[in-house]
Amino acid sequence: MRDDRSGPPEDDVAPVALLLSVIGLLGCFPVSLTALAIAYLSRERIRKSDGALGGERTVARAIVLGWVGVGVSVVVFLVFAVAAVIRRGT
């Protein structure tokens, strides 16, 4: 059986970025942007650590979900904008 803790310790903010990106999927644009900023900073810390920090996969997931959250926010905004235009026209 493989020990998952055998590698370097995960960067402390990588799970925070992932959590915020999941919350950002609910359509909260500022949270998605915050998750992306934290994820990119964490990825940079991991890369500069020369193997002393892990968590690259967690950060990659946070970045993907953060961008999906931004997309969800844009779609939600557009739906409300179109609904407002349609309602005003009737």
* Count of DSSP H/I helices: 3
Low-pLDDT sequence parts: none
Strand residue content: under 5%
Largest sheet: none
Throw out a few tags for this protein.
3 helices, 90 residues, mainly alpha, rod-shaped, single chain
List strands and helices in order, with pairings.
Layout (H helix, E strand, L loop, with lengths): L13 H11 L4 H20 L7 H34 L1
Summary of the model, kept short:
With 90 residues, the protein is an all-alpha fold. It has one domain.
Structure commentary:
With 90 residues, the protein is mainly alpha-helical. It starts with 13 loop residues before the first helix and ends with a helix. The chain has one domain. The longest helix has 34 residues, at 56-89. α2 (29-48) runs antiparallel to α3. The chain is 72% helix and 0% strand. It is rod-shaped, with a radius of gyration of 18 Å.
